[in-house]
Amino acid sequence: MRLLRIAVLLMAAWPSFGADGAAERLEEAAVLFSEIMATPDRAIPQDLLAKAHCIVIVPGLKKAAFGFGGKFGRGFVVCRNSAGLGWGAPGAVRVEGGSFGFQIGVSSTDVVLLVMNRRGMEKLLSSKFTLGGDASVAGGPVGRNASAQTDALMHAEILSWSRSRGVFAGVSLEGATLRNDLDENKVLYGRELNNKEIVMKGLPVPAAASKLIQSLNKYSGRDKG
Fold it and tell me: Which of 13, 66, 107, 184 sits 20 to 30 Å CA-CA off 222?
């Protein structure tokens, strides 16, 4: 009976499916990014955003622990467009991961990842990869710029941040696994596509994602020069 109650709780926490669910998550991702960037002294540094090849935004990553730990969530990856200046169409991702411990309860945390080089981008666009295993990851800095950070941090393929209870900070997400969310992509694009196909084909941005892309371009577009 106890296991049944746990299963019901986890199912209730899992994000909704279908077109409405996808549009809602894209809206949440846009709002999340805008809120984070609205306070420059506690935001992702602008110089890192300018250098990033891709960004992953997961609004409401769930972390459950009932004698064991686990993370699960759905979000989106957006990479630079073919011109390398603005941002292209989003691909959907599922985030899964485990931790060990004996905490009781379920918490929700917003997560943002920046992919800082081409190699990290290629790994991100594969069907599945693990942070800290397939790609190096480090908690990212906050503030107006990252010039004072250590070389070790700046050489990480992926930088990660989380926001929980209004506090935004760099955090390592080692062990979390990212997979293509093929079901969500089919909802958004009307056909089966993996994230590499979405990025490499330069597909048009779905209407539901326009607010997210506008927000990304506002805070992290690149100059032609």
Answer: 184
